[in-house]
Every structure is written in structure tokens, then in C-alpha cells.
Specification:
Rossmann fold, Dehydroquinate synthase-like, alpha domain, six-stranded parallel beta sheet, two-stranded antiparallel ribbon
Amino acid sequence: MKTKPFCSAEIVFSDLEKLKERLLSLPVKNILLIMGAAGENWWNLHSFLQEMSKRYTVTWLKTDVANPDQRDVCAALAQIGDAPVDVILAIGGGSVIDLAKAVSAFYDKDKNGSYTVEEITQSIRSKSYQNKQEYLDIIAVPSTAGTGSEVTQWATVWDCGKTSKFSIDAPELKPALAVIVPELTMTLPKKLVLSTALDAVAHAMEAFWSRHTNPMVKDLSLQAIRVVTANLKDALENPQDRALREKLCRGSLLAGLAFSQTRTTACHSISYPLSFLHQVPHGFAAAMTLAQVAAVNEPATENFDELAAVFAPYGGIQQWMDSVCQGVLELRLHTFGITQQDIPNIVHYAFTAGRMDNNPVDLTQEDVASILGAIQ
């Protein structure tokens, strides 16, 4: 009997030293490390990487790519070439883990160097990569607290033509092991801490009202939102407080577990053109419309009062977001140079299948235009 486990990933909370110990005792020979070149200095990994290279054959894909597209996937595969890989170790933010999933989906020693952008694009659109017999296992070590990619089965690949956002999606792409190390998030700039935390809130809220929600998802969502709303402002003001960072990591993970069951809804669907047309960082783009979409969805969302109660002490959803954003940025379209004249084009690209139609209320183009107009 074929079943879908709630979460097949092993989840571990750790400190940096215990992470190193675990990674140096893996029962493998060949490791593909996907991590930005600066990570070695950020997290003082010099001696660890030297020791890892003594114990394993390590291929290090040094990537600083934000929002990987088809060209980035091709470049990564070409760089790996015919190197043998037993497991992928992805240390970094959501983009790093997304790239790891894309590599897992397409890795083929005999073909890595010959993939084309067109071939990758066609395979993603047709989902032919799902016919693959074997995927590479992934160990995900997130360095941000927000994306939840360490416990989901999909990866975002942005269209290099800037006309759409793609998803690579297969159960086998869910990381085998997710190691949460709060210290890794302590090197992040304030704006990225805020953006990723707001992404986690968006994941949790959208999971709560998704057409595929259930009571367990709602409980996970509520707890994720409670943890982030209670601690984000303090974490921004006290960047070296490990306990606060651990709480944000916990909120992100809970949100990831919630939306791994449901996928996202209208807020994320609207966010995609904000990002690929206007370079709005993903977390800000996803959270920007939360209050407006929540108001639309309220009549169609069971137990919405429980969700509203989390934000009530702060004066509501928009008031909480404005409060945590104060001193960092104003979370409005004009902050990113988006004008009223840009809204029709954003609306045109805002209806992503599997996201917009997962919203509990069917939105029209006029509805989306009104939502965007309210945050101008």
C-alpha cells in the first residue's frame, strides 16, 4: 500500500561542533558540498573542510546564486561533471538547498556536462525528471530561518526569461537529514533575518487556510506564527542572542512542516512576479499581501479566529508586520520602485497553477489588482 509520510526527513537540532562531528562520520565515500565560497570564513569551517577532504572525496560547488534559474542548474551540473556523488551536503539558505534538489533531480555522470537550458526547461515543464530511478540523498543544513526547504519535496527554479517561476517536485527530493544549527543564522544581515522570518510566517498562514489544510497543519501553523511573532523583533535587536535565533529556527521549521503538506496559496502566487519582474526579495514579496489576502480568505477559513487571535495583541496582521519592519524598511510596493502603472503586468503573471488555485477563495484579476493597490 502506497502512503505519504508526514515527514520522511530526520530532523536534528545541533550546535556547530556537533554538526561537524556528525558530518565527519557519514558512511559514504563521495560528497558533493554545495555552499557559498564565503561560508568557510563566515562559520570558521577551514579546519573542518580540510578534515572532511581527508576522509572523503569532496566536490565543492561554490555557489553564491540567489534564486537559481535553468542556467544556474546547467552550470552546476557541468561543474560537477563525472564526479562520483554518494550524498549532497547543502549548507546555506533556501537557494542553496533548492539548487541541491535540482542537482539531485538531474544528476547523471554521463550527461552532466551536456545539459542545455532548453532541455532543463522542458524536463521541468513536462516533469520528465520524475521518471528517474534514483535520486541523490540530500543533507540540508539551513543557514537562514524561513524557507523550510529542508523539509519539503520541491525546489524553486526561476525562469531565466523572467516570465515564470518553476517548481521541481518529487518526494525523493525531500532531504534525508535536516540539521538545524542556530549559530549559522547569526551572521545574517538584519534585512535577511527579517525577510526569511516573514517568509516563514507566510508559509504558516497560507498552510492554515490552504484548501489542503487539516487540523494538524493548523496546529503547526499557529505555533509557528506564535513563535515568530513573539521573538522576531527581539531577535532583530539582539543579533547575537542564540536562544532567540533558535526560536526563529523552530518557527521556520514548524512552518515548513505545515506547508509541506499543503503548498502555498495566493500570497506566494502574487509574490512570484514581484520577485522576477522587480527583484523584491522573496520573503518580503510573499509577506507583503498577507493582511489583504487574510481579509479576503477569512469567511472561507475554518477557525480563522484562532489565527486572528495570534496577531490581536499587536493590533492585527498589518500592524505587527509594520512594527517588526520599522527601522529596516517599509513593506510597501513603492519601497521597491513599483508604481501603480506596474500593477497590471504583475497581475498578469500572478496566477500560478497549484498556488493561486490552492487559495480558499477564488481571486479574479480585479481582486489581485485591488490587493496590490492597497499596499502601494
